[in-house]
Amino acid sequence: MTSLPSGGGPSGGPRRGAARLVPPRLRPPVPLPRVRSPFRSPLRGPWLTSVLGTVLLVGIPVLFVTGLLSYAAYNPDLSRINDKTPGKGLLGFYLFSWPTHPYWLYRVTQGVHVTLGVVLVPVLLAKLWSVVPKLFALPPVRSVGHALERLSLLLLVGGGIFEFATGILNTQLDYIFPGSFYPLHFYGAWVFFGAVLAHVALKLPLAVRSLRSRSFREELRTPRSRTRPEPADESGLVAAEPAEPTVSRRGALGMVGLGSLVLFVVTGGQSIGGPLRRAALLAPHGGEQGTGPSDFQVNKTAALAHIRPQDVGEDWRLTVRGSNGRSVQLSRTELAAMARHGAALPIACVEGWSSGDQHWEGVRLRDLAALVGFHDDPPGVFVESAQLAGSFRAVALRANQVRDPRSLLALRVNGADLSPDHGYPARVIVPDAPGVMNTKWVRQLTFGATYFEERA
Ligand SMILES: Nc1nc2c(c(=O)[nH]1)N[C@H]1C(S)=C(S)[C@@H](COP(=O)(O)O)O[C@H]1N2
Ligand SMILES: [Mo]
Hints:
Largest sheet: 5 strands, mixed
Structural class: alpha+beta
Number of strands: 10
Bound molecules: the ligand Nc1nc2c(c(=O)[nH]1)N[C@H]1C(S)=C(S)[C@@H](COP(=O)(O)O)O[C@H]1N2, molybdenum atom
Distance between the termini: 80 Å
Keywords: Membrane, Transmembrane, Transmembrane helix
Shape: elongated
Strand content: 5-15%
GO molecular function, one term: oxidoreductase activity
Protein name: Oxidoreductase molybdopterin binding domain-containing protein
Pfam families: Oxidored_molyb
């Protein structure tokens, strides 16, 4: 059976045959020209929105959790030098001592955070595209409940765009620790995630119903020629006057998937390493590599950090101090004469890139603590760089990080002295710490927690 349109063809006018039979004076009045919605894609509908939403429903909690972990890894509760986020006391309720085991944990959590954030961009954009008619729906507010729903949507859409934009800008531009990005991205994450939870609570039943309304497999077999709009429903997503499809749902989802795959290929390698590393065209600072044994990514070169030759030359001395008032000065030769240890550890930057495991050699931080009287149970340490004069800020490390036998003040890497760009004469390397904790061109170490508050 073929169903004939009852009121007219797709163009909305009366059918020709009928027009001839109806005498002119009985013809219905010409309808007033209506404002056509500019959103006429026949693909928009609750099913498509729910499919995209499901991907985000899996991805966004992973982003949130890995983000909170990254925040914890900075030891923000240890010293105001590490982090000045006001009011984090409340939002930082979950903070804990970031472990040093397994040594690759931060590389994985932050690699996932950054890579997933980039890869989800096409999904986020497609999801926004799929609901855009709702964002411009008129009248803007129909009731108090409706007003609240729209406000939550504002936080959801605004928060999402804000989090993705600040995150991506931060990985692509310079990371200034602990610049304004840090608290903003952190606050934004709570607002965004709160709005996501509210949205999920409101929309879950509709999403489940919509996902059940069509078979995903069937949709993947449907070409453009057989693509029809979803049935109109209360979701308000289905176009009232759908245009002809220019692409199938399969094609649209395929384009989103392909976009994500391409982004994965051009970013994933920066944290995963191996052959993918060379494909990581979007990796920040990708061009700055050392040579020889120091052949791995440089975050900031000695020149960029304004390290002067006299800061790191013959006259360089390491000052080791304790909160107990004791203090020792060591030349590089004296340091090199201390018990030397090795550790294979990666640098894993908050921007998502990792150097991969490098073989570091140097003096244990806990042996340096012993020099100023902390023999058993060394306390945390406050690390200052010769660069302190510039923009780089000192960092505080926890007692568990100082205690780990793999935490070194490194003098050498991969069998050679550190290169100037990787922190010669001496740099910190700590297992499982964010890259920024691995201070280069170290000038002073102060062991003992009380000091953090005085200086902060
Ligand atoms: N003094 C100083 N130390 C520093 C930095 C810096 O800018 N100045 N950058 C930090 C950051 S953000 C990272 S990721 C690592 C990078 O180390 P690399 O340049 O040897 O790869 O160094 C850390 N140590
Ligand atoms: Mo970094």
